[in-house]
Amino acid sequence: MNFVAIDVETANSSVASICQIGIAEYASDGLVSEWETLVNPLAGFNPWNTAIHGITADAVEAAPTLSDIYEDLALRLQDKVVVCHTHFDRVALARALKLYGLPPIACTWLDSAKVARRAWKQFARRGYNLKNVCAFLGYEFGHHNALADAKAAGFIILEACRHAGLNIDDWLPR
Q1: 101: which DSSP letter?
Q2: Pick from 60, 58, 51: which is nearest to 17 by CA?
Q3: Is 137 helix (H, G, I), strand (E, B) or coil?
Q4: What does the alpha-carbon distance between residue 114 and residue 135 come to, in Å, rounded to a whole number?
Q5: Checking DSSP bridges between strand 30-38 and strand 3-10, what pairing results, if any?
Q6: pLDDT tens string 129-174
């Protein structure tokens, strides 16, 4: 059961304004590796976004752009099952790649929010946000940090697999 979990933070209301990326790689026995980077979105920062994640324009001034890290990012995601919690991170990455004229990265996406909704009936209709599901599972994390959120999404997948007696491939066609 190998997969990677990803999360991004954005600088402003444009989902393409990625300013941080976190990736956690998992195997059936748990976390294998982790990677995170600040990203210079070449865009302005909205105070509302900064209030959520704490990342400022000054913090990313010397950070690489998405174009700078594209090859490394593609190596981490290409041909893998990539987990994100809700569609936000998948859409943000796709729009950012398009904005910078970078090719899409071929991978298979799996939404941990949808998995949680199917694995535990109390989340079937509401309350399936990352913070609530992790609180239910007893998993503590620093919410709105890309790596911490990616690790939390990966933990949800591992717990859902244990709870339901399924593996990662079983969730894909659902």
Answers
A1: T
A2: 60
A3: helix
A4: 17
A5: unpaired
A6: 999 999 999 999 999 999 999 999 999 999 999 999 999 999 997 6
